[in-house]
Amino acid sequence: MSNTKHAKAFRNILFNGKLDLILEAHSGLSAKVVEETGYPAIWASGLSISSLLGLRDCNEASWGQVVSVTESIYDSVDIPIFFDGDSGFGNFNNVRHIVKRLSHYGIAGISLEDKLFPKMNSFISGEHSLTPINEFTGKIKAAQDSKSCDDFVVVARTESLISGMDVDISLERANKYYEAGADAIFIHSKKNDGEEILDFARQWDKRCPLVVAPTTYTEMPISILEDAGVSVYICANHLMRASLHNMKSIANQIKKQQSIHHLDSKISSLDDVFSLLNYDELDTAENKYGIID
Ligand code: SPV
Ligand code: MG
After folding, report:
1. Is 57 a known active-site residue?
2. With a threshold of 0.85, does the pTM exceed it?
3. How many CA atoms within 13 Å lie on the side-chain side of 204?
């Protein structure tokens, strides 16, 4: 088994000339759902993993905690994992350490964003200060120089639109990141219409692949983003939000009814759980490896 195959596959997703839609996971179980549904890759989302841990998406979770969840995601599936590296959990040296560990483990790539550490989730209002360009290009170079697998992908994410700057400044930053060795650019926006993303993408003109997470501009047709040169469309937090919604609903119903009767059609059966986690395989393994009298 090679731990480079996922990086190769994810690199191909970025460079295959078409748009691919990938979905967030925040645990081994959610990762299995993503894989079973047929997505080509997983976004190991900082927001979703932090939420799973009961923490806020402002680097309250240590990098070790986030990497540990990501490793359980990796161990649960056989598709590429794209890791949300926030702003690198510190300086270039933290970036080197994390990239070495992720690429050694078999994670396919990292997204690094040009915000200060500790970062704050892009959709929380307030100031989103950016890292000086030179400091961030150092992180990109450090990431590329410390990966243990050539195909491991380093994606530079600019938060310039999130911080209130315009498309021109975003293009300037993105170009510096590309020149510093980023394999792809992740351009993020918190606006609802996605127009600044389209403007950016059209001017970027396919210099290298683009990644987006259209959490706020959900009405923007995927085909328009694809025509503008977007390569990866991340559904960044939807399984985490789906589970929160359903957990709240079921918790309320049980409390109100004082009973767990009549809930079976609203929750997964235990057979579903056992099937997703492949309990049947244990019999095969028992026959092969179990004690034979
Ligand atoms: C995440 O999923 O943690 C992201 C994407 O960084 S977003 O929350 O949409 O900024
Ligand atoms: Mg994030």
Report:
1. yes
2. yes
3. 32
